[in-house]
Amino acid sequence: MKKIICFAISLITIVACTDMDLVPASNLSPENFFKSEGDAVASVYGVYSVFPGNDVYNQFWEVLQSQGTDDAEWSGGRTTTNLDKNALDKFQYDANTNLIYAVWNSLFRIINRANFAIENTGRMNEDIISAQSKAQLIGEAKFLRALAYYNLVQTYGGVPLVLTETLSLDNLEVARNSADECYAQMIEDLKIAESVLPEVNNLPEGYLGRATKGSAAGLLASTYLIRGDYQNVVSKTTEIMQMGYSLWENYADNFNLDNENGKESLYEIQYMRNTPGVAGSNFNGFYRPPFVNINGWVGYGDNPVTRNHYECYEEGDLRRDINTRVYTPEEYPNIPPNYEFPCYVNKFIDLSPLAVRSAGSENNYPIIRYSEILLMRAEALNAINASDPEAYEKLNIVRRRAFGKPQNDISDIDIRQGLSKDEFLDIILLERRREFAFEGKRRFDLLRTGKLKEAMMKQNPAIASIIEDKHYLLPIPVSELEANKLLEQNPGW
After folding, report:
1. What is the largest CA-CA distance in the chain?
2. Computed over its alpha carbons, how large is the radius of gyration of the chain?
3. 372-382 in b/e burial notation, b at 16+ Cβ within 10 A?
4. How far apart are CA 114 and CA 131, in angstroms?
5. CA 364 to chain CA centroid, nearest Å
6. Each residue's pLDDT tens digit, 212-250
7. Does 450 score more than 50 pLDDT?
8. pLDDT of residue 191
9. Rounded Cα distance, 378 and 385, in Å
């Protein structure tokens, strides 16, 4: 199912007037904008338009989520001249690292745009916009605000809850809220979004690619999982399982360009190549090795895959060669001879002649897939009752697909009942590692289970020895501390 919507460059320009990027500097005020439903739609598109940028999902998110874990490391002859990426990879970053500021800044830009859309759409009269359209657009903006906070809180801990549009340079100093307060707000936003957004099987014309009821429910389930609220994870995944989603028959189908926004997708970031005003994905070149030339340009070789990751797959697991590829000198004589293990990410490949460096590629970036709903449900059921047979069944449905087996038939690769809660959790984390490789999940999984140092010890003990408790949260950027005296730095930084 091909995307039929593209998110144009926002009609709302928001410029960083402070380090938190909270002040909109624009000639589009509520007085001369918000005169039609189209204006309200444009304000919400302005929120969507930040997520595909380089500082969020189009590059930096993968640096944060894969480098600095056991999945990717600059080593074995593979190096980068990008100081920020190397710092994240080797746990040598600090509060001055630009990448840490860029992610913070972009996520707060999303929040301010969402507040702008929520407040001003909410003030529009019903002679301009119907009550249903107003509620839906506000719901979309609240989903996107929650997604920004979802990423912020897991990355930095409790952050300022900014829930109103910033209109001036006055009173910009805002104290941090607790993580619990942030999660409570996210849950409230997501419940509202779920109640008003359209169902995936009943989308308005031209809506494909925007947030749906399932998007909000999926992010809500994930938020409950982070909080250890397992009963609500079970309740929410029960709802989602009745919404019409299902797994593709083959794992590779998820990454077929013709299947984007398809039956397994609850939400994904939209990209279109060679389209003026619309972001193309960078991952086609970001992941491609620097010795592989396609359409006249070589890749950057980012997030170089570790042997640890490559070898985490069982024999017969088809996901390994979809997620990764080991290149050989026989195929590519120009591989530098000092590359000890030339393995790279194999997802998000766009071979179209239109996918040139300047145009980007077509590959969407998945945020929530239905397989994650099944694995979240399995994890929650196990946490409640280690002998729950459904936990094993949901886990095994995902595994069967990975091995090319019928999803609903008992198989020789099934995980058998009898594991302890901790043993089952380790299996789930390993399954998530394989299933969502290089989809922005690994670091958060290791953080929420407290297993970051343990995983890195198996990958590279020298790097693992550097990891301290403080590394479970990134530092608050120093520029933010200087601009906002009410902010407090994370412990240890």
Report:
1. 69
2. 22
3. bbbbbbbbbbb
4. 19
5. 11
6. 999 999 999 999 999 999 999 999 999 999 999 999 999
7. yes
8. 98
9. 10
How many C-beta atoms lie closer than 10 Å to residue 272's C-beta? 22
The rounded Cα 157 to chain-centroid distance in angstroms is 17
Report which DSSP code applies to 471.
G
**Spatial distance between the Cα atoms of 146 and 130, rounded to a whole number of angstroms:** 24
Q: pLDDT grade, residue 171 (50/70/90)?
A: low
CA pair distance 436, 241, nearest whole angstrom: 19
Q: Is the pTM of this model over 0.90?
A: yes
Nearest of 352, 425, 355, 417 to residue 389 by alpha carbon: 417
CA distances from residue 317 to 322, 375, 392, 482, 488 in whole angstroms, order as listed = 10, 17, 18, 50, 46
161 CB-near residues (< 8 Å, 6+ apart): 149, 177, 181, 182, 185
Using CA atoms, how far apart are residues 192 and 203, in angstroms rounded to an integer? 18
Q: How far apart are the first and last CA of the chain?
A: 46
**Count of Cβ atoms closer than 10 Å to residue 421 Cβ:** 15
With H, G, I as helix, E, B as strand and everything else as coil, classify residue 95: coil
What torsion do the CA atoms of 465, 96, 56, 108 make, to the nearest 10 degrees?
120
**Across the chain, what does the average pLDDT equal?**
92
Number of other residues whose CB lies within 10 A of the CB of residue 54: 14
Compute the residue count for the chain.
493
Task: List the beta bridge partners of residue 265.
Answer: 369
CB 437, CB 324: distance < 8 Å: yes
DSSP code, position 470: G
CA distance 218 to 198: 14
